[in-house]
Amino acid sequence: MSIVFVVIRPGITAAMETEISAGLAARAEQDDLHTLGVEEEYMLVDAVEPRAAELVEEVFAELPDGMRDVVQHEYYRSQIEVASPPQLELGELTTSLKRLRSGVAAAAERAGGRLVAVGTGPATGPNARLVDKDRYHRMREHFGDLSPGPGMCGTHVHVSIPDPDTGVQVLNHLRPWLPILQAATANSPLFGGRDTGYASWRSMMWERWPTVGPTPYLRSHEHYLTLVADLEASGAMLDEGMLYWYARLSASYPTVEIRMGDVMPTAEDAVLLAGLTRGLVATLVREVRAGTSAPDVAHPLLMAAHWRAAHDGLEGLNIDMATRQPRPAGRLLRQLFDYVRPELERHGDLETVTVLMGRLREQGTGAARQRALLARGGSVGDVVDWLARATRE
Q1: Terminal CA-to-CA distance of the chain, rounded, Å?
Q2: What global pTM score does this model have?
Q3: Which regions form coiled coils (predicted)?
Q4: CATH class of the domain at 14-392
Q5: How far apart are CA 350 and CA 347, in angstroms?
């Protein structure tokens, strides 16, 4: 299950990082384990007001030298992205994400702003300007204004796979499970200064792009590549990086990339998602090896389940794909946990994921926590203040 890619950490040289990644991959392959990594996108907001702030270049100027290789631009100047190095241990992933969040948050504060882990901008404000990159300008010219507002911020989880053919079969098996994982990430109920009625308004905005949606049922890796080529030829995407299916094969790493969720308020929220996702992928790899066929769930039912995830989050209902009936989303998440429990235990994640599941059940999703603050008389500004504290911890 090897994966090798280099992401420089503070105080570690490129040669050292390559050696660390190679050793990690060798250990994973020897023990038949899966490495994982997380990408998170954040919003930059004003130091005082809850509005988005176009400070990304100023933040980059304030980053320590050792952190600039793990921080990236996003589509808008009010966004910024980080990528954790690959890990085997959830404890190491937690440390990495906290270090990245605190480091970028400190740079944002030095630049006159704040870092906020939220799906999209809660407060009113003008549409943001693009980062000055040729690809982003070509996207705007070709697709128009599909992303009004300050931007959309998500969480992407990479889990290593043995080969692309297995990866494609894993994508088929993932399809029924992703709506409930999406529900657990819901963290964008506010937009334009008001409650949208959705737990994840980012999800609804994101669906405007032509390739966003559930991964289709795939016959083979060749079928996957043919679809990618056909979508590029159609003009629905400019390159493979614009394949915005909720799960895909990474174009850069030997991983499946799960990418349907909002960015979550705390590092622990992201680690819970990563742990459950790795447990699920590892379980599904075993299903593929055993010759178990993936259920060919009807695309309209998947669309309905993802809509329900965006609307209700984890606090409402979602669709039980086995019965095609609505059930409490929290119970469906528990069902997923029970399904992947053996792989959680085998990867050493069971205790951490159990604790974080309990915390999520007690506190609710990011959307629920934001709404609870408003229900206690808080303002949108109070919500953004809380998000900034939760992001940096």
Answers
A1: 33
A2: 0.93
A3: none
A4: alpha beta
A5: 8
